[in-house]
Amino acid sequence: MTIVEAIAAVPNVSRVSATPAAIDLMQKLIVMHGPLMFHQSGGCCDGSAPMCYPRKEFKVGAQDVFMGEIGGQPLYMGKSQFEYWQHTHIIIDVVPGRGSGFSLEAPEGVRFLTRSRIYTDAENEAIEAIGPPPNGVERPAY
Description:
- This protein is of the alpha/beta class.
- It has one domain (3-130): HesB-like domain (Hypothetical Protein Aq_1857, Chain: A, Sandwich).
- Helix content is 27%, strand content 30%.
- The protein has helices at residues 3-9, 20-33, 79-85, 121-130; strands at 16-18, 36-40, 51-54, 64-70, 73-78, 88-96, 110-118.
- The strands form two sheets. Strands 3-2-5-4 form a four-stranded mixed beta sheet.
- Helix 1 packs across helix 4 (121-130).
- The longest helix is centred in the N-terminal third of the chain and has 14 residues, at 20-33.
- The protein starts with a helix and ends in a 12-residue tail after the last helix.
């Protein structure tokens, strides 16, 4: 299958998406803090949760993978974490409870949460045909 055929087979293939509740919270946070960005590292505890920051307050680099945009806001994942999640579609959701004190949603009494699903065969072919995502140097947050 050619790259064009693979992408045409699954025209809306993406690595990330967000639930309506997450988009609503992002819109509220944008009003309060301006443009946002998300980062999910491979650390323990809250390090494995998506963290939300003001866009210009978190610098991404060569060890960060640009996963795509959710609600118009970029989402990055640590390279080592991406190795585990590369065959899954990442879905950012929001649930009641407190997350990390460093993530912008913490004072709202909710936290962002990563859900995922395995790509279908057609989606996986399309993702592979597109090639690897850029890193944070190739696609900076701002």
